[in-house]
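Quick one, tokens below. Sequence please?
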């Protein structure tokens, strides 16, 4: 269940983070509401993940996946296209996530 909760937490965080720009510094009601609800859901599911996966590994997975998905959301929603160094850096983040999942013994399977 931890990975299911992780997916929900990441999706909620990506939605909330993507809505931050649309909230225009919390001056727009509905985007601001999405930010608040999204982050509340993300942190709730984050706490459920901690029953199984250590906090450091959980945060690495959550933030790494969030960075990749928020970058993609920014590309599609706001036409923010990353340059080559940003793409290479994101590639390293993806490699780190793969290494953690394949080789880390701190994750209970």
């Amino acid at each position: 269940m931890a990975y299911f909760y992780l997916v929900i937490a990441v999706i909620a965080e990506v939605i909330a983070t993507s809505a931050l720009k649309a909230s225009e510094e919390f001056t727009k009601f509905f985007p601001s509401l999405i930010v608040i609800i999204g982050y509340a859901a993300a942190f709730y599911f984050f706490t459920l993940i901690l029953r199984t996966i250590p906090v450091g590994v959980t945060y690495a997975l959550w933030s790494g996946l969030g960075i990749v998905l928020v970058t993609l959301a920014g590309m599609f929603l706001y036409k923010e296209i990353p340059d080559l160094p940003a793409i290479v850096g994101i590639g390293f983040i993806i490699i780190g996530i793969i290494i953690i999942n394949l080789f880390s013994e701190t994750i209970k399977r």
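The CA atoms of residues 82 and 88 lie 10 Å apart. The chain has a mean pLDDT of 92.
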